[in-house]
Specification:
Blueprint: E1 3-8, H1 16-31, E2 35-40, H2 46-57, H3 63-87, E3 92-95, E4 102-104, E5 113-116, H4 119-126, E6 130-134, E7 137-139, E8 145-147, H5 152-164, E9 168-173, E10 194-196, H6 197-205, H7 213-222, E11 226-230, E12 238-241, E13 253-269, H8 274-284, E14 292-294, E15 301-308, H9 313-326, E16 331-344, H10 354-364, E17 371-375, E18 378-384, H11 388-398
Parallel strand pairs: 1-2, 1-9, 2-6, 3-6, 9-11, 10-12
Antiparallel strand pairs: 4-5, 7-8, 11-12, 13-15, 13-16, 14-15, 16-18, 17-18
């Protein structure tokens, strides 16, 4: 029988009745002639509660022990789901990441999957058993437990789907699919029938929280179609895939990301090696840098600006301030009251006019643009955070996304 990998988020398994509901969905898929491997997240706010508990014990939890602690949330959810399936009369087994053969590097809390030995899963499938895998986790070559970072259960599911040759990876959550923007902000937002891997990767990177970026990357690399749908109804969701797309609006969606901080080093000498002397130490410190802008130099002096996540601001400044002082820069200025707003769509590629329309719309709304960054299918502006909601609403209307 074909293999279907399903992933259920924390809200989908948030309590006993929801776990039973997930079991019924899995049984329906099984009875439809499929072998099922289900990946589950921790119940509700379990991961947040465990993190809070760890920080009540110590201000600096040991990275290895914290990963072991956090992995237990998914273990609880997977075992309860297996119990529910057994109670309905179906053979089921729960597997930890290690038991499922998910091998990772040793980068605690942000581990990457190195390979998957799916032999145990395949044997269980051969025996007619429904397999429930604890998401978000794996094991190192030294047999230590690791976690894959926030949203890592998505990555677990897509990686397993690729490894098992599944026909689809179905991701069930509390939303019905991918929308043209956050429907909580813009009630007129439209649900998309399909999006490309490229579009979805930009959406997840620049504000959408529906999917984990690494999961989308893996889907694209291994050509695994990903269906995003609700676990609370049977409405058609959104298919993420790499095949031909229906003709639609060239702008697919609008995103916003409120987790933005801007650091500007004022008075940087404009000479070879300066950028490397700043960004190489940031990379070694594990600080991810996004937008980078350097203005035109005057008398070989320039200002260098870059953005990081708000939570990385102090970490970045610890690295950058001594470097700036050594090179004779005047100061490091910081602004944490910012947001990114992006228009995204593969139809924008090689088509003029979208940037000017975006900028004109924001100008008409009285919104000042501080920085601009682009890709072939995305235009992002960095603006004051208190203008973000208004910007999204104005752009959604300007590009007629409510008509999709």
């Amino acid at each position: 029988m074909p293999v279907v990998v399903q992933k259920y988020g924390g809200t989908s398994v948030g309590n006993a009745e929801r776990i039973r509901n997930v079991a019924r969905r899995i049984i329906a898929t099984k009875n439809n002639g499929n072998d099922v491997v289900a990946v589950v997240s921790a119940m509700g706010d379990t991961t947040d509660d465990l993190i809070k508990l760890a920080y009540q014990i110590t201000d600096q939890p040991n990275a290895r022990e914290l990963d072991v602690l956090l992995s237990t949330g998914e273990i609880v959810a997977s075992t309860l789901l297996a119990m529910a399936l057994k109670n309905f009369g179906y053979e089921a087994i729960s597997l930890s990441g290690a038991q499922a053969g998910i091998h990772t590097d040793a980068n605690y809390s942000h581990a990457r999957i190195v390979n998957i030995d799916a032999s145990r899963i395949m044997q269980e499938i051969h025996n007619g058993t429904i397999v429930i895998v604890a998401g978000f986790q794996g094991i190192t070559k030294d047999s230590d437990t690791t976690t894959l970072g926030r949203g890592g259960s998505d990555t677990t599911a897509v990686a397993l789907a690729a490894s098992l040759g599944a026909k689809v990876c179905e991701r069930y959550t509390d939303v019905e699919g991918i929308f043209t923007t956050d429907p909580r902000l813009v009630p007129e937002a439209s649900k998309l029938k399909e999006v490309s891997y490229e579009e979805m990767l930009e959406l997840t990177t620049y504000g959408s929280k529906v999917m984990h970026p690494r999961a989308v990357e893996l889907g694209q690399i291994y050509n695994v179609p990903i269906l995003v749908a609700s676990s609370f109804n049977d409405h058609h969701g959104t298919l993420i895939h790499g095949g031909p797309m229906e003709i639609r609006n060239k702008v697919t969606a609008i995103t916003q990301d409120m987790d933005v901080a801007k650091i500007t080093i004022l008075g940087v000498p404009d000479k070879p090696g300066v950028a490397a002397s700043i960004f190489e130490p940031l990379a070694k410190a594990g600080v991810s840098v996004d937008t980078i802008v350097q203005n035109a130099s005057i008398q070989n002096i320039a200002d260098l600006t870059f953005t990081v996540a708000k939570g990385e601001t102090e970490k970045a400044l610890i690295v950058v301030r001594p470097i700036a002082e050594n090179m004779g820069a005047r100061e490091c200025a910081v602004d944490t009251k910012l947001a990114k707003v992006s228009i995204i769509g593969s139809g924008m590629q090689n088509t003029p006019g979208y940037a000017s329309s975006m900028f004109s719309t924001l100008f008409a709304a009285g919104i000042n643009i501080q920085l601009i960054t682009t890709s072939e299918i995305r235009i992002t502006v960095i603006i004051a955070d208190d203008n973000a909601d208004e910007a999204v609403k104005a752009l959604h209307k300007a590009f007629e996304l409510d008509l999709i």
